[in-house]
Design brief:
4 helices, NUDIX_hydrolase_dom, five-stranded mixed β-sheet, 7 strands, hydrolase activity
Length: 171
């Protein structure tokens, strides 16, 4: 099995600090009262947004479309950018120093696609479902919880993307 981009880069640089870009998507249900969220394979608690790290040559928009297909089996297209966040982690769960620049996008199903095809990949994503936003779902890390709040407040109030610079920590 071919290693992913991060594994290939880590094999070259070890635990030294690296910057990675990621993209995630927000897909609303038809009633606009629930968001598609995933139970992640790497976290016992909370939800995450479908998405992942960019591969070399990906645009953020291509990455979110690819990741949605891989993790949920849904074909989506980007509607708009929601925001961008940075997160510095001096020691992630693999023992590596990492800064992640994450870009969020609102997505919609491509014409002709339905949520009937929804299916978790079973590895990275254990399950995937539309989760009501009231009360707020518990996300898998505090940074994702803050992002969810921004999506549900700032992005619902206007079309301007937000920027979030997170403090250095290890969540």
């Amino acid at each position: 099995m071919e290693q992913n981009y991060i594994a290939r880069m880590r094999a070259k640089v070890g635990h030294e600090g690296m910057i990675f870009n990621s993209a995630f998507g927000v897909l609303w249900n038809e009633a606009h009262d629930a968001i598609l969220l995933e139970k992640r394979g790497d976290s016992a608690v909370g939800y995450g947004f479908p998405g992942g790290f960019l591969e070399y040559g990906d645009s953020p928009m291509q990455a979110v479309v690819r990741e949605f297909k891989e993790e949920t089996n849904l074909d989506v297209e980007v509607v708009r950018m929601l925001g961008m966040a940075t997160h510095v982690n001096p020691k992630n769960s693999w023992g590596d120093a990492q800064e992640t620049i994450s870009m969020g996008f609102e997505v919609k199903l491509v014409e002709g696609a339905t949520a009937d095809h929804l299916k978790a990949d079973g590895t990275e994503t254990l399950s995937v479902e539309f989760v009501p936003v009231n009360p707020r779902p518990k996300m898998f890390v505090p940074a994702a919880q803050d992002t969810l709040e921004r999506v549900l407040t700032i992005n619902e109030e206007n079309e301007q993307p937000w920027l979030r610079e997170a403090a250095k920590n290890d969540d």
